[in-house]
Design goal:
Strand content: 35-45%
Helix content: 10-25%
Number of helices: 4
Radius of gyration: 20 Å
Order of helices and strands: EEEEEEEEEEEEEEEHEHEHEHEE
Length: 294
């Protein structure tokens, strides 16, 4: 069996592959899992599932057996069956990843998430599909991809179902074909909203360590920052109604969390406090108190 080549980038966390701990990853330290020689898989071989998981503040790079390249964002999980590349090329994603797919018309690459199915037509694309998010986002940088919304949650790949685990989910009847610089946002009810001529930097530069926000609702931006910096950034209850949809435009490259908080409070005119809850850092943004009358 051919195992993927895996590269990890982290901040002192643990990288997990196929359920095993690979080791501590310090900033700038890369760990690799090299490929073994590939041999044909017997038809009677049991189907097992491999899983690649990143933690908060950690990114990972995986080369699948067919040569497809996958870059995982923080707090993401990629699953694929042991017959990947033999009988099928299907994966399951919870989180965010950029895929650069080695095209094979006879064996299409299919990416399943809780509320979407994306089929490669020869492309590089990003999928953002965290289970707690309100929608799934698919953006194509090059080539094209077909995307179908799903109106029911799907189960992850399992050893008993293999690559076809998602087939029982109800699909939206009309696939959307995305080409370069197209994006689609898919609601949990299967609804689809397509955008054209999007900025690829906004969606792909995270793979190089840069977070780009373009009129992003503040609450959504805080969720991404929380995954990136291994801290919970949240709005105080007295600020949620006013600021949750406030648009944030910013580009952050290798900034410390302290600098990010200063930027946010200065840009949006808020205050912040931080503390530790159950051993985890929490940063809370508050609305500015009105100035007393002179």
């Amino acid at each position: 069996e051919l195992e993927p080549t895996t590269q990890w980038r982290g901040v002192g966390r643990y990288a997990r592959w196929s359920g095993a701990v690979l080791g501590a990853v310090a900033a700038g330290v890369l760990l690799w899992v090299g490929p073994k020689a590939r041999s044909p898989q017997p038809a009677e071989s049991p189907v097992t599932v491999s899983e690649v998981t990143t933690s908060r503040g950690e990114r990972g790079h995986v080369r699948l057996p067919d040569g497809t390249e996958v870059t995982l964002a923080p707090m993401s999980t990629l699953r694929y069956a042991s017959d990947y590349g033999f009988r099928q090329r299907e994966i399951s994603l919870d989180g965010e990843a950029v895929f650069t797919v080695k095209h094979d018309a006879a064996h299409p690459f299919v990416a399943h998430t809780a509320h979407s199915t994306t089929t490669d037509l020869g492309t590089t694309f990003d999928i953002r599909a965290y289970r707690n998010d309100r929608s799934t986002l698919v953006v194509v940088a090059a080539g094209s991809a077909s995307v179908v919304g799903r109106d029911t949650a799907v189960a992850p790949l399992s050893a008993t179902t293999g690559g076809g685990a998602q087939a029982s989910a109800l699909a939206h009847p009309t696939p959307v074909v995305l080409r370069a610089r197209d994006a689609v946002r898919i609601g949990k009810d299967g609804s689809q909203r397509v955008s054209h001529a999007v900025s690829t930097a906004t969606y792909f530069e995270w793979t190089e360590g840069r977070l780009v926000f373009q009129d992003t609702p503040l609450e959504e931006a805080l969720q991404r920052l929380s995954r990136w910096y291994d801290a919970d950034l949240r709005l105080a209850s007295d600020a949620r109604d006013e600021f949750s949809k406030h648009p944030l435009t910013a580009s952050l490259a290798h900034e410390s969390l302290s600098n990010v908080v200063v930027l946010l409070t200065a840009t949006i005119k808020m205050t912040a406090d931080s503390g530790v809850v159950n051993g985890h850092r929490v940063v809370t943004l508050h609305r500015l108190s009105p100035e007393p009358p002179r």
